[in-house]
Design goal:
- By secondary structure, the protein is of the alpha/beta class.
- It folds into 2 domains: 264 residues, Aldehyde Dehydrogenase, Chain A, domain 1; 194 residues, Aldehyde Dehydrogenase, Chain A, domain 2 (3-Layer(aba) Sandwich).
- It is 38% helix and 22% strand.
- α6 links the parallel β9 and β10.
- α5 runs parallel beside α6.
- It is globular.
- 53% of the residues are buried.
- Bound molecules: 1,4-dihydronicotinamide adenine dinucleotide (NAI) and magnesium ion (MG).
- The site of 1,4-dihydronicotinamide adenine dinucleotide has 28 residues, from α8, α9 and α12.
Length: 504
Amino acid sequence: MESLVLDIVTPNGHHYKQPTGLFINNEFVAAASGQTITSIDPATDKPIATVHAAGAEDVDRAVHAAKVALGHASWKKLSPTDRGQMMAKLAQLIDQNKELFASIDAWDNGKPYHVALNEDLPEAITTIQYYSGWADKTFGQTISTTPDKFAYTLRQPIGVIAQIIPWNYPLSMAAWKLGPALACGNTIVLKPAEQTPLSILVLATLIKTAGFPPGVINILNGTGKDAGAALVAHPLVDKVAFTGSTATAKHIMKTAADTLKNITLETGGKSPLLVFPDADLEQAVKWAHFGIMSNQGQICTATSRVFVHRAVMDEFLARFRETVTTTSIVGDQWDENTFQGPQVTRAQYERVLQYVDIGKREGATLFMGGEKAVVADPKNRSGYFVQPTVFTDVTDEMRIAREEVFGPVVVVLPFEEEDEAVRRANDSTYGLGAAVFTRDIQRGHRVAAEIEAGMVWINSSQDCDPRVPFGGVKQSGIGRELGQAGLEAYSQVKAVHVNMGTKL
Ligand code: NAI
Ligand code: MG
């Protein structure tokens, strides 16, 4: 077991000793697969640590652990109030370790440390806290039928849940998935993304400390094609909850069909942001910038298509250039001036630069950016840094206007009429987020109703709150996470018919 323990110091001085095994039945164990994953610091292109990675045999073991835990009295008979308190304790433990979590996620993912600490961590903590409160507030109904009969419903867990999460918000994506699943009494096998396997190991340690019985939450690092695919195919898994690319989601849906698994999918987007001529332009520019350039543009809901009314286009562009120039400071995770860190992996970095080439070849105008960003510190010369990039003279048919880039790249398109703007905004296979900038209250609500998206922001972008449902329409997903709606994804209703009489 010694070889499982990692002893590292983060670049900002956090020392931690961490087992790197698979977390099954509340113990860190070596992977039977013999596979490992080496995590890379995207700012330096240097390895951080190597962790165990699950194969099919390990997946089978973890799923069985979750299945046993589901029926075990320590979980099944735990009162919902006690279950909620255990969750609240976990939230408290994450809070007590928030600097460590932020350091690891910044290092592993590339996001600025201050962003991880002040945005990702509060999101993860409040999500678990929020759902801890729901644990004893989800129950069924009593339904009157005839004078002699009635029925009632029980709200029960779905069972063993496979949760597959991405790398863009490692800890908060785990919290979004764990919170509602635990509140509803399910058991879990969670697979983090192979690009960011580290912070979840610290979380596993805290899960044990919080008092969760063995097998309730199992965590398997591993690749999508091995651990992910084996989880989705496993016959004892009752549900798959996934966040990631639309292509992988389609694959998961097909595999899940073999055993008719319940699924929740949160996938890609090409979310529009509409700026009407009556908008507060300063606000529109500020949010348009935040909506695509924050988190290195690696946001499923990124407002990556900005439609600007022709009357205000010149002014919008001038102000947007100014904001990008002064705000989007590119640097490493540890510099407190950094707004934009490196892209998460070399593959994502190359993908972003490829899209820049595609845009240029399609005839769009590179308004700003479009190159590798060179940062001052020599140790970061091999980092995956990209300049914040803006394209103009873009048409709706161009690939850069239709496909998800998942980087700090935005297309700005002019429009003239409200109907036209809505029609073009909706002309997408995706439907995740959408933003509307206007001072006309009627227009704001009218457009919000007409736009094909799971979330609409009026005079804002990217608001996300554990109390509010989140999800997509069209090819952006199936089902909702967060809020009360998030409980629907992790519970099922059983109807019990009661005969109080002797007649038919
Ligand atoms: P991905 O969808 O392949 O990976 C997401 C998760 O799915 C990871 O945990 C991965 O291991 C797992 N996975 C991959 N193949 C699987 C399979 N066959 N069965 C089960 N699980 C599997 O996304 P990737 O490759 O990391 O990024 C590619 C693109 O996906 C990005 O450029 C971006 O466009 C999109 N993406 C969207 C995200 C979102 O928040 N909606 C997050 C991450 C990526
Ligand atoms: Mg990494």
